[in-house]
Amino acid sequence: MISSDTIVASATASGQGAVSVIRLSGPSAIQIGETLAQRTLHPRTAHYGALHNNSEQIDSGLWLCFPKPKSFTGEDVVEFQGHGGPVVIQRCIQAMVDQGARPAKPGEFSERAFLNDKIDLTQAEAIADLIAASSDQAARAANHSMNGVFGNRINALVDSLTHIRTHIEAHIDFPDEEISPTALTRIQSELDTVHTSLSDLLSRAEDGVKLNQSPRIGLIGAPNAGKSSLLNALSQQPLAIVTDIPGTTRDLIRHTIVVRGLELSITDTAGIRDTTDRIEQEGIKRAQDAVKHCDIIVCLFDATSHPSIHDQDIERLVSHALTPTQTLLTIHNKIDLDTDPLENHSSYNYVQISAVKGDGIDQLLDWFEEHLRSNHQAETIFTARARHLKHLRESLNYLETARTLELTSMTIDLVAEDLRLAQHCLSEITGRFSSDDLLGEIFSSFCIGK
Length: 450
Ligand SMILES: Nc1nc2c(ncn2[C@@H]2O[C@H](COP(=O)(O)OP(=O)(O)OP(=O)(O)O)[C@@H](O)[C@H]2O)c(=O)[nH]1
Ligand SMILES: [Mg+2]
Description:
It is built from 14 helices and 14 strands. The chain is of the alpha/beta class. The chain has a six-stranded mixed beta sheet with strand order 3-4-5-2-1-6. A six-stranded mixed beta sheet has the order 8-9-7-10-12-14, sandwiched between helices. Strand 3 (47-53) and strand 4 form a beta hairpin. Helix 4 runs antiparallel to helix 5 (136-146) and helix 6 packs antiparallel against helix 7. The radius of gyration is 29 Å and the shape is flat. It starts with 6 loop residues before the first strand and ends in a 6-residue tail after the last helix. The model has no long low-confidence stretch (mean pLDDT 90). Guanosine-5'-triphosphate binds at residues 221, 223-229, 242-244, 246-249, 270-271, 333-334, 336-337, 354-356. Residues 221, 223-229, 242-244, 246-249, 270-271, 333-334, 336-337, 354-356 line the site of guanosine-5'-triphosphate.
């Protein structure tokens, strides 16, 4: 794609910083850069010099020039590394606009890179995911996607489907001939292989989607178990009111903390008990609804009134059946007050703490860390989005329909069509077949300058 206009934006975050990067991309980028630098810019060479607007020096810094096609966008790109103050950045950008550039829209540099085949759609999305990564694991996974791990697996599946379709379509051209048993076996075995890979990719993509969200942790327990004290200990600030009056917390209190490179979204809830107080009843309902959507449910017990924990104790608190993706952790709190040995007879993971004194908080964080990291094997993770899951699921449905049909000269057209649609869904993920509307939606969620 050849763009007719040249775009400009600051590629670094707004606010003050030592250095900012202003990026120009498009057919006039080099001419604008050379006019403002008042010198020739040699490809891929750092030139130190001023940025002049007419006769006035606006800033000084490093000029870099990347002629097409060897640039991020695939177009002529010029970057100016100047000083990082909002006013000076704006003045530099204005000088470039005066020379004919226009301010870039969010994600427009990445969009041009995609349209010029420098990256596929999964890689473009991974750039945004890397910038937004809230944990080191999410950053590592985004890097994998950016390097094409996800896109390559999609392309391999598309290639396999193309191969199978070629065989099938060849038979459509000769409808009078029955398909030989050998050809039939080969096609079916190839379909089985694609089905296994696609199912595996879907389950990894489901994990990848979760990496883009902070794990949700719900604290639940009887009144006075110490839920709000634990939230305050984890966030290291007095977010929730703590008193010795049972039923202190009514509303859900949500807070996100970052510990050990992990971003955790924690929800404190109202204590669960039988009550006639209408406000408290509503709080308890909200508590039980909230934990239904949590990835980890933490059930707190007061060690002084609950020396041992049984499954029935947990069932009284957690009103729903756990889904396969939910994990339950039980906690004995207030161990600073208890001298007798505590016991866990439940089948769930178990940690002992004192939310007020801080004992066991490190072990609790160890448990979160171990549990969350073991969910994703480092070498195989990549980030994914809800959009990818939708296309993968649709593709799997078409493939499954194709596999249920017995392959005969009567059904071959139907099988061929299902495989075509399965392939089409996969191609939508990498952007080989994507509508302009979809591209607009994806890139508008990026930051400006990317
Ligand atoms: N000694 C000791 N006291 C604790 C500990 N954790 C909480 N408490 C006390 O227990 C009482 C209740 O604590 P909260 O954190 O408000 O309990 P909660 O589970 O949020 O209670 P509700 O909001 O009523 O459901 C307060 O007086 C806390 O100081 C602990 O680890 N050790
Ligand atoms: Mg509370």
